[in-house]
Specification:
Strand content: under 5%
Shape: globular
Largest sheet: none
Number of strands: 0
Oligomer: single chain
Number of helices: 6
Distance between the termini: 20 Å
């Protein structure tokens, strides 16, 4: 029987794996199709079928997101890729407010989100990704 501490460690590891796939989806998708096109070995340290299941899990999450949350995810990924950005929260707050204000003709303050909201949105997306990955029998 697995003790409680080990279960916590496993769940934490699974959450980190889901985060990586969610954040790096675009690059992973390109690598996946490139490897598939060239009949190459999977670049992910797992089978191509397994990588495909992970990509599908992320696509299912993305497909269920509202326009606002898709924008948030796009900005969250951008912050992750830009090594000059140390903390993703202020970057996403500013960029999200600016884009939404420009799109809808209001001031940025109307679209400013609290840190708590950003962390909640991120946590929800990661959790949904993890749960869908479990259902798709993805390897963690």
């Amino acid at each position: 029987m697995i003790d409680d501490e080990k279960i916590k460690q496993i769940l934490s590891h699974d959450k980190e794996t889901a985060k990586r796939w969610l954040l790096n989806y675009d690059g992973c998708r390109l690598q996946y199709f490139e490897a598939q096109k060239n009949n190459s070995k999977s670049p992910f340290g797992m089978s191509m079928a397994e990588a495909g299941r992970w990509l599908k899990a992320v696509e299912l999450v993305q497909g269920a997101l509202s326009e606002n949350r898709l924008l948030f995810l796009r900005l969250r990924r951008q912050a992750n890729r830009d090594k000059k950005i140390i903390n993703w929260v202020p970057f996403v707050q500013q960029a999200y407010a600016c884009i939404m204000a420009e799109k809808y003709g209001k001031n940025e303050a109307s679209y400013w989100m609290s840190e708590g909201t950003l962390y909640k949105w991120w946590s929800d997306m990661v959790e949904k990704t993890r749960l869908i990955a479990y259902k798709k029998q993805c390897k963690f």
